[in-house]
Amino acid sequence: MKRKLKRLRIANKKINKTDFSKVENLASISNSHLAKSTFEATNLQNLKIKNSNLTKVNLKKCLMGKTQVIHSDMAHSDWEFSNLTGVKWFRSNFTKSNLQCTALQNAVINESSLKGADMRWANLTGTVFSKTDLSNVDLCNANLKNTRFIECKLKGAKYNLNTQLPFSNEMAKSMGMKNIPLM
User: Fold this and answer.
1) Which end of the chain is more exposed for a tag (fewer CB within 10 A), N or C?
2) CA distances from 95 to 65, 98, 99 (A)
3) How far apart are CA 110 and CA 132, in angstroms?
4) pLDDT-derived band of residue 155, with 50, 70 and 90 as boundaries?
């Protein structure tokens, strides 16, 4: 009798520069080091990433709805065109990550760092950022309708005329945000 794998778990592994794009039903990644690996165009919905290093990982065009990232390092990772609706990120590092054109609606991002991340054209409708470092983030053309920022660092965050802010331009300037003129 042939047994079918229900949900794959990666735990306590160091597997760098690996192509995981054909992996199906990945349930969790914990205590692992998968730097410079690729998951491009993979269905990773409901994935739980905990205490792991996924720096410089390729997550372009992934379906990652309701994914949880807890105590993990995902700096310099590429999430371009990914669906991240309803994700929960807690105490994780996304410094200088590429989040261009992502769907990041109704997410909860708590005590994390997105310092210097590229979030141009991202849809952040209904997302809650709490105690998160968003310094020098590029939010040009992003949709921030109904987005809440609770005790966040926004100094140097860039926005432009097309950015839909949840507050006035005056309030954005008082928080240290920079209004970048359209080219």
Assistant:
1) N
2) 21, 9, 11
3) 6
4) very high
